[in-house]
Specification:
Structural class of chain A: mainly alpha
CATH architecture of chain C: Orthogonal Bundle
Strand content of chain C: under 5%
Chains: A mainly alpha, B alpha/beta, C mainly alpha
Radius of gyration of chain C: 20 Å
Largest sheet of chain A: none
CATH class of chain C: Mainly Alpha
Oligomer: heterotrimer
Number of helices of chain A: 13
Mean pLDDT of chain C: 88
Order of helices and strands of chain C: HHHHHHHHHHHHH
Shape of chain A: globular
Helix content of chain C: over 70%
Number of helices of chain C: 13
Strand content of chain A: under 5%
CATH topology of chain C: ABC transporter involved in vitamin B12 uptake, BtuC
């Protein structure tokens, strides 16, 4: 076992120790606290189901960041693409008279297309005008979030919600099936399947090759006759579609209606998820699982010890910082 | 690839955790089983699920004050989770409390309704109390306070104290509870000052003090000389204080933030309801009910008057308050006809009383309110 | 609803809108100036929201404990600097990904302030009040708009020019810009790129922290969790809007501040607007503005060429 396998262990251990000290200061036995985090996440079918529930959107937003990142683009806008996807799916679920069997597939398509459309704006601006995509995707997040808010306070506000800012509940035909009496839903499989498809596309197809070339060396891509602009737009569209699907899965698998705040920052969390996996779609699933665990375990800490949510934030931040720090150390040595 | 190594380690930790977790769960069960021997005094554990951080200084903060109160008074164990996302994380959090054996679980936001009902089905022996909703079950009750009664009383103060006959109302988001508060307040204003109007500005926020202050300042610069508010932070009070206007607080006595401006406030006292429920649970007499208490029970009330409020205004308020306390008026008072909406349509004819059902979905302004309910069709 | 245009103007609508814009824009201005300094050196700090909230809390707590709001402002700056130091350490020394570290600062800032801030809820500290500048404040219209603010408003304006001077008229500024544009070249000319980036990031954090403290000590005058309410993110857009130019940040910050309060002003004069739709306006405006800028004159709006890239001697990116 050489150093490069040891370093990640050390960085995780270091974050555990650091957070442990924090917990101890608050009068909480850190060993006990960590046991609680694990048992509540892994110790029952509900805990495990919740892990999947939290991991699923993170896989998709992680991929939504990872794919453009392969081509050297920063998609900070997965959050907004997710919202727009959820919006499109909700419109289909609530307003379109379709045969039951067609509803879910149509929602799926609509969310992917809407996410794409939303990502097309920064993609186009980047490709044509070299407009900084970090900022345009970030700005569009706010537009999307306010748009969804406007819709649930207005046109999509339900008839049976006593004028609260919610849509009506989706019909059963617009709801992803759930299993085991938990919130484990069909979307989990969709996300995993998509991750493998993305892996295949990025590694085994010409498109994947051109993405990697553009990301690694734009000049070489030019010589090889690969259109950088096209790759920029396509990767953004691809990423946007996946984030949009994440939105559809959230509303039709978990929320079962449209609400003002449908994402707890999944789009932003997708960024560390993608980076931790260095953009590898298979590894994205693992790093998404790590973040899913931080969410579920963090909330277990809250329910058990009534620690303020602030502690959970610090906990998550420190773990990521330690891992990133450790990661950079290894990469520099290697 | 080095990162792969890192993630493999994560995976290994996960698997280890999984195994440890399963082992732990099995062990735990065996330990806890004999602990449930019947004892003469039942140990109660209560859990609270909050929608925003306790530090919001308003809604959740007031609920948490209630939690602390019952913890002290009954010596029971309480737990809370804050900032729980409605529709996303609520179900897990509620289920965890049920799983951990909490006897009564309070869910303090309207948006927790679906999740509360869902989890309650799986835990028939656990008591669930949902604040401000309308769905109940055998083991799910609801509770809320008739805040509009206190709003009405503060409206009387505002109507009596305004000189410009323009009263500003910094509103949060257009949901029935907020609209109900505005209307009750406006009816109070109308009661003593039919010429005065209530000007509504929506901020779309619950705790963005800078924006809320700015909204209050906008109203003041348009000539409003009394400012009421719905948000969690006392920023609107400060705006009034700094500009020589009067203000009406909400949630708690906000006079500390605006000693000169703050006339009174419509305040919550959740400990009344929480104490009642806990006592019922302890006595084993709890049954599902829809608690919607008003000023007579002390769940809502008004803060002490500012010295600037003259005796005759105090008398007017007390006279109206007595009506509630003596049961002279229905609980729905002041929503007793005739009530007109902004377009002059008669909503409730003379003597007709609005129903609780109509309260829950209220979506119109009474005739002395100036402003629109956004995005309503 | 019909609006009487004349009544709107005579009622002081414009005056109060402009005065509010300046007030609402000031915290944005501090933070934007800070981020401009940071980004000019090549470091992208996405964690403004976290640094601002830390500044807001530190300022409030210090003023509450000592009764001195100015000490609060200064220490808020240092608290911001401390968080920025974490960012610099990861970005410069560890060469880690700057986007992640920045995003984690947001969580860290919200977390730390939420944890320690609970005891300060509902407290009253000592605040910084508006002053009326003699003579000038009595000028009609202009006096009301410009000369009746608290001292920090003028400090922010002054800082914009100081930073402009620092960046474009001093050797230190030259080194910052060189580190952001072409660290290899700067290095070969003897500039200590790492040191410059550390200093710029920390100076930036200092200003962002003050921006946060402005919210809790001069603007809203209280402390609540999460009271920055997304202003840190807006400032990231503002940096681009201003083209990394301190003097343009003034205009941008006041414009964004104005858009923030426009909805209230319109509602207060009886103009029915959807605040949801209006809330989108600043973001849409920025995108459109950026678009026009890049189409018209690309180079003037270019980001520092090495923004967000770590610099490792001898290794080209």
């Amino acid at each position: 076992m050489n150093l490069r396998y040891l370093t990640p262990v050390i960085s995780i251990a270091a974050s555990l120790v650091f957070v442990g000290i924090m917990l101890a200061v608050m009068g909480i036995n850190p060993v006990e606290a960590y046991t609680v985090m694990f048992t509540r996440s892994f110790g029952s079918k509900f805990g495990i189901a919740e892990l999947f529930v939290k991991t699923t959107p993170l896989i998709l937003t992680g991929l939504a960041v990872a794919i453009p990142l392969r081509a050297g683009l920063w998609n900070i806008g997965a959050e907004g693409q997710l919202y727009m996807g959820a919006f499109a799916a909700s419109v289909v679920a609530l307003k379109m008279p379709l045969p039951d069997l067609l509803i879910l597939p149509t929602m799926f398509l609509a969310s992917a297309l809407m996410g794409m459309a939303w990502a097309a704006i920064p993609g186009f601006l980047k490709a044509k005008f070299d407009l900084n995509e970090i900022i345009s995707t970030l700005l569009l997040n706010y537009v999307a979030i306010h748009w969804v808010e406007y819709m649930v306070y207005g046109p999509l506000r339900g008839k049976e919600v006593y004028n609260f800012p919610f849509s009506d509940l989706f019909s059963d035909a617009a709801t992803l099936p759930r299993f085991f009496g938990t919130r484990f839903h069909f979307g989990v499989f969709i996300a995993i399947l998509i991750a493998f498809i993305v892996y295949y596309i990025l590694t085994k197809t010409d498109f994947g090759f051109s993405v990697r070339v553009v990301g690694a060396n734009p000049r070489a891509a030019e010589y090889a006759g690969i259109s950088r602009e096209r790759v920029i737009i396509y990767t953004m569209l691809f990423g946007g579609a996946l984030a949009g699907i994440a939105g559809m899965i959230e509303v039709s698998g978990i929320q079962l209606r449209l609400r003002p705040a449908i994402s707890t920052g999944y789009g932003y969390a997708g960024i560390p998820v993608a980076l931790l996996a260095s953009g590898n779609p298979i590894l994205v699933m693992l790093s998404a699982a790590l973040f899913g665990f931080l969410y579920v375990g963090g909330s277990a800490l809250q329910t058990t010890y009534s620690v303020p949510v602030a502690v959970v934030y610090v906990f998550q931040a420190l773990i990521v910082l330690f891992i990133i720090g450790g990661n950079s150390l290894i990469q520099r040595r290697g | 690839m080095k990162v792969k190594g890192l993630l493999l380690v994560v995976l290994a930790v996960f698997i280890a955790g999984f195994i440890a977790g399963c082992a732990q769960e099995g062990g735990e069960k065996q330990v806890t089983t004999p602990a449930t021997t019947p004892s003469e005094k039942k140990e109660i554990k209560a859990a609270f699920v909050y929608v925003s951080p306790v530090g919001d200084a308003g809604w959740t903060y007031m609920h948490d004050q209630g939690r602390k109160f019952i913890e002290q008074k009954y010596g029971i164990k309480t737990a809370y989770t804050e900032n729980v996302a409605e529709g996303g994380d609520d179900e897990r959090v509620i289920r965890e409390y049920a799983e951990q054996g909490y006897d009564v679980i309070f869910t303090t936001s309207f948006g927790f309704m679906d999740a509360t009902i869902t989890v309650a089905k799986d835990y028939p022996d656990t008591i669930f109390m949902h604040c401000s909703g309308y769905k109940t079950a055998k083991n799910v009750g609801t509770y809320f306070g008739r805040m509009y009664q206190a709003r009405y009383l503060t409206g009387i103060v505002a109507g009596a104290m305004t000189k410009s006959n323009k009263i500003g109302y910094v509103a949060a988001v257009p949901i029935p509870e907020v609209i109900r508060g505005i209307n009750a307040f406006a009816l109070g204003v109308k009661k003593v000052n039919p010429d005065a109007k209530v000007y509504v500005v929506w901020t779309g926020t619950w705790y963005d003090p800078a924006k809320e202050k700015e909204a209050a300042l906008s109203l003041i610069s348009e000539g409003c000389d009394v400012i009421a508010q719905h948000q969690d932070s006392p920023a609107a009070q400060q705006a009034a204080e700094e500009n020589g206007a009067y203000s009406i607080g909400y949630h708690s006595d906000m006079s500390k933030f605006a000693p000169k401006a703050h006339l009174t406030a419509a305040v919550w006292n959740w400990s009344v309801i929480y104490s009642y429920i806990i006592e019922e649970v302890m006595a084993g007499t709890w049954k599902s009910e829809e608690i919607w208490w008003g000023i007579d029970k002390g769940v809502v009330g008004i803060a002490p008057f500012n010295d600037a409020v003259p005796q005759e205004v105090r008398d007017m308020v007390n006279e109206e308050m007595q009506k509630y306390l003596n049961g002279e008026v229905p609980e729905q008072y002041p929503f007793v006809g005739p009530i007109y909406d902004q377009n002059g349509n008669l909503v409730k004819a003379e003597g007709e009383v609005m129903t609780d059902e109509e309260f829950l979905s209220m979506n119109f302004f009474v005739d002395n309110v100036v402003g629109e309910i956004p995005a309503s069709e | 609803m019909r609006v009487d245009v004349e009544a709107v103007i005579t009622s002081g609508f414009i005056i109060s809108l402009l005065a509010s814009s300046i007030r609402a824009g000031t915290p944005l201005l501090f933070a934007t100036l800070g981020e401009i300094v940071t980004e000019r050196s090549g470091i992208l700090n996405l964690g403004l929201e976290g640094i601002m909230i830390t500044g807001a809390f530190t300022g409030f707590a210090v003023s509450f404990l000592t009764g001195n709001p100015w000490l609060g402002i200064v220490l808020a700056g240092f608290a911001g600097m401390a968080l920025a130091f974490v960012h610099a350490f990861f970005s410069v020394t560890l060469k880690a990904n700057q986007s992640i570290t920045g995003l984690m600062l947001v969580l860290l800032g919200l977390g730390i302030t939420g944890f320690f801030g609970r005891d300060y809820i509902g407290q009253v500290a000592t605040y910084i009040d508006p002053i009326e500048i003699p003579v000038l404040s009595s000028i009609p219209v202009v006096g009301e708009i410009v000369f009746r603010h608290d001292p920090l408003v003028y400090l922010a304006l002054l800082l914009a020019f100081v930073i402009w001077f620092l960046l474009f008229r001093t050797r230190y500024g030259l080194e910052i810009i060189a580190s952001g544009e072409n660290p290899e070249a700067a290095d070969s000319l003897g500039v200590d790129v790492d040191r410059i980036r550390y200093l710029s990031t920390m100076l930036g954090g200092f200003l962002v922290g003050i921006g946060g403290a402005y919210l809790s000590l001069a603007y809203a005058k209280l402390w609540t969790e999460g009271m920055t309410a997304g202003r840190g993110w807006i400032c990231l857009a503002l940096v681009i809007f201003s083209g990394w130019m301190p003097q343009r940040a003034i205009l941008g910050a006041y414009l964004f501040g104005g858009l923030d309060v426009l909805s209230f002003k319109l509602q207060a004069v009886g103009f029915g607007v959807s605040y949801h739709l209006l809330a989108m306006v600043p973001y849409v405006v920025t995108i459109i503005f950026l678009l026009f800028s890049v189409i018209r004159k690309r180079e003037a709006f270019g980001a520092p060429a090495s923004l967000g890239l770590p610099y490792i001697r001898g290794k080209r990116y």
